Amino acid sequence: MIINQHTELFGVVGYPVNHSLSPTMQNAAFSESGLNAVYLAFETRDIGGCLKGMKALGIRGMSVTIPHKSAVIPLLDEVDGLAKRIGAVNTIINDEGRLIGYNTDAPAALKALEESTEVSGKTCLIIGAGGAARAIGFILRERGVHLTIANRTAARGEDLANSLGCAYVPLKELEVVETDLLVQTTPVGMYPKDEQCIISPGALKERTVVMDIIYNPFETRLLRIATARGCLTINGLGMFIHQGAEQFRLWTGLKPPIAAITRAVEMALTSAK
Ligand code: NAP
Ramachandran region of residue 205, left (φ > 0), alpha (ψ -120 to 50) or beta? Predict the structure, then answer.
């Protein structure tokens, strides 16, 4: 790889970002597509300063992660309709000095689900009420899915349920919820605490399709239990790959090299253990 005066710069901004696999994914995509571009991780709490830097230095694109996805919105020149409705931006394009925000998490989750199952008209229980749950809730609602939100903290769960116009149930009442789809969006079960599971096995019904958006490990304890009960399962890798692939497409206008980026992310996850 040659870095020279023509190299274009992209990155991810967040706090912390040292766990992020986005540099691995996007640099694999640039390299596979023969682009003279690099993607770096920028760990900062100063999102305003980051945006000024993007403009001043001509940084072409930025991924946005925790804790900046909502705070960045009023600082941008333009925000795409879906990102505005969700209230979260995870992608910024620098269009000749105008910073435009998008949300690729939501369509990526929908795509990952629809690769395995039909969602329109189905019922869906979303566990969690954070940023990911919010993005997934909005796009599923737009797809005609009947939602229920479950969350550890009632106030946050009820707040998201109110925004989505749907019901809220406490985590301990999950056993009584009949649902076609279950989408797990909390960090419970993530490496290294991968023996944890957010719900008891008895709460899973055989015909439920279960998606866990955690991608490290690929198969969480929840997904192992679901598989043992005969449920169709979907891991978080598809969502992660699709959100990054769509960022690459927005920044470059090129078709994302899905196979190469999947290989790079899988290798990074496997070798990190
Ligand atoms: P977030 O905004 O911080 O929300 C976290 C949610 O998890 C909240 O609802 C929180 O409940 C709940 N939670 C946290 N710890 C819990 C515990 N010990 N027991 C029960 N509930 C707990 O985070 P986020 O951005 O939504 O991300 C959540 C997870 O999704 C992370 O693991 C992240 O890596 C993953 N993710 C994956 C993708 C992908 O592409 N596959 C994309 C985005 C995020 P309270 O309200 O009670 O605190």
Answer: beta
Q: How far is the CA of 125 from the centre of ligand 1 (A)?
A: 15
Catalytic residue numbers read 69
Per-residue model confidence as pLDDT tens digits over 174-191: 887 889 999 999 999 998
> Whole-angstrom Cα distance, residue 41 to residue 64?
10
CA dist 135 to 103, 233, 272, Å?
A: 8, 20, 28
Residue from 18, 70, 152, 186 to probe ligand 1 pocket by mutation (most atoms less than 8 Å from CB): 186
- Binding site membership of 126 for ligand 1 (Cβ less than 6 Å): no
Of 243, 242, 192, the C-alpha closest to 221 is 192
Which secondary structure element, helix H or strand E, spans residue 51, and what is its range? helix 47-57
Max distance between CA atoms of the chain, in angstroms, equals 61
Helix (H) or strand (E) holding 168: strand 167-170
Task: Supply the angle between the helices 22-32 and 237-252 in degrees, to the nearest 10.
Answer: 50
Cα of 151 vs centre of ligand 1, distance in Å, is 10
What is the mean predicted confidence (pLDDT) over 191-199? Answer: 92
Mean pLDDT of 18-30: 95
Q: Is 246 in the pocket of ligand 1 (CB under 6 A)?
A: no
Q: Indicate whether this model's pTM tops 0.85.
A: yes
Residue 256 CB less than 6 A away from ligand 1:
no
190 lines ligand 1 (CB under 6 A): yes
